[in-house]
Specification:
Length: about 180
Amino acid sequence: MKPSHPLLSRVLTEALVSSLCFVDRGADGRADSDDAVKVLEDVAHMAGALPGDQRGELIGLVAEMATAEADPARRTFLEGLPERLGLVAEASAAPTAPAAPAAPAAPAAPAMDTPRYWTLRHFSQANPFGPGCDSVPALLRRLADSIEELGPAEIQDVVIKSEMTEHGAWQSGTVYFHLPEDED
């Protein structure tokens, strides 16, 4: 599907990428790493809600930007962005494999034994649209079942969001976690 406003899509994607790159780099030490992770989580959640064709368009625009980017650090950031936002693998109602890892930046001057990057995986789920989509207990049961399917995982954060619809607040959740093999 061709975008209805290709210039608008391009400009908004460039603005989003510039903002994320700024946040990821820690705003030259001025940004708190927890705030940076929260921003990346929010963007990943919103991007994950895009329909498949729009997700594909976003991935394509980011790939074009990476190819044209002269700054090596920014090019590397752009090349990994679709995976970090969980756009490469679609989330399912009960994931059999975790979503792609994300690697938010640590504070600007880490200690010698502190890794500069770490792996953070995530998946998102929502209640089925329609009557009952506003049930937080149903969403929490869904998320808990999926967390159990992960096996040994260290849960870092669970974010619950809602979007108003004619059926009430449509609940969705994103779980952020580490797996034992991520410690390497």
